[in-house]
Amino acid sequence: MASTATSDKSDRIATRSKISAKLDNPMRRKATPTDWSIKGELILNCSCTVFCPCVVSLGAHPPTEGHCHAWMGIIIDEGHFEGEDLSGLNVGLLVDIPGRMGEGNWKVAAYVDDRASGKAYNGILQIFSGQAGGTTGLFTKLVSEIIGAERAPVVIERDGTKRRIIIENKIRGEIEMVTGKNNEEPVIVKNTKYWMGPDIIVAKGNKSRIRDYGRVWDFDGRSAEICPINWRGERKFSYDKNLKKIVQR
């Protein structure tokens, strides 16, 4: 379960305070194998006018508008960072990509659920900056600037075929699955090599806007995605019966 935020010494950033210089540029930082996992769902809405070409081109094809502006929401159903429980927490991201996704130079702002403990907060920032390695380790190469990180009430709702995100007046969005020939089933792009996960549910933005960090973006009617995720770090531990202790493997 998500724990209530306390005045933990590891929580150096006050609730809702923004930073820019306190996080190192990830281009100068290497991914470090860490024991973490996140299982849940990622939702996003971007500026592409048709379904995002990055899914099947793996970021090699340019976005339909030449750039990619997006918000992402991550629902952590189950997860931990170095033993600290992350289950029940939400994370929001503002993402500004100037060209092809695979060429990097992303600018990113992170909004971490204000219910997170200090250790969980810092762990989530390590995961989404790429510093924790594993599935998100590629962010150390793709993200050139972390423009901010803050605690905030990150509300993400699952409502049938719809998903909603509310982060104060900064990010507000609703996306909806696109149905196929069978109106009761969504269109799914399956078995991809996309970094988020192999199966992507095609969606569209109903109402969507960003008003933060100087960005004024609206994504009504634009491309959206819903993706089940099962991410993890590279460092694993197990109990060695012979040594009678937990060891890294």
Rg calc = 18 Å
Main sheet record: 13 strands, mixed
What class do helices, strands and sheet pairing give?
A: mainly beta
- Poorly predicted parts: 2-23, 244-249
Shape assignment: globular
Helix content bin: under 10%
Structural domain count: 1
Give your account of this protein's structure.
It is a single chain. The protein is mostly beta strands. The protein has one domain. Strands 1, 2, 3, 4, 5, 6, 7, 8, 9, 10, 11, 12 and 13 form a 13-stranded mixed β-sheet that branches. It has a two-stranded antiparallel ribbon with strand order 14-15.
Question: What descriptors fit this protein?
Answer:
249 residues, mainly beta, two-stranded antiparallel sheet, 3 helices, disordered N terminus, disordered C terminus
Compact overview of the structure:
8% of the residues lie in helices and 44% in strands. The chain has helices spanning 54-57, 118-129, 139-142, and strands at 36-46, 68-81, 84-85, 90-97, 106-113, 143-152, 154-159, 162-167, 171-177, 188-189, 200-212, 215-218, 223-232, 237-240, 245-248.
Q: Which helices and strands occur, and which strands form pairs?
A:
Layout: E1 36-46, H1 54-57, E2 68-81, E3 84-85, E4 90-97, E5 106-113, H2 118-129, H3 139-142, E6 143-152, E7 154-159, E8 162-167, E9 171-177, E10 188-189, E11 200-212, E12 215-218, E13 223-232, E14 237-240, E15 245-248
Parallel strand pairs: 5-6
Antiparallel strand pairs: 1-2, 1-13, 2-3, 2-4, 4-5, 7-8, 8-9, 9-11, 10-11, 11-12, 11-13, 14-15
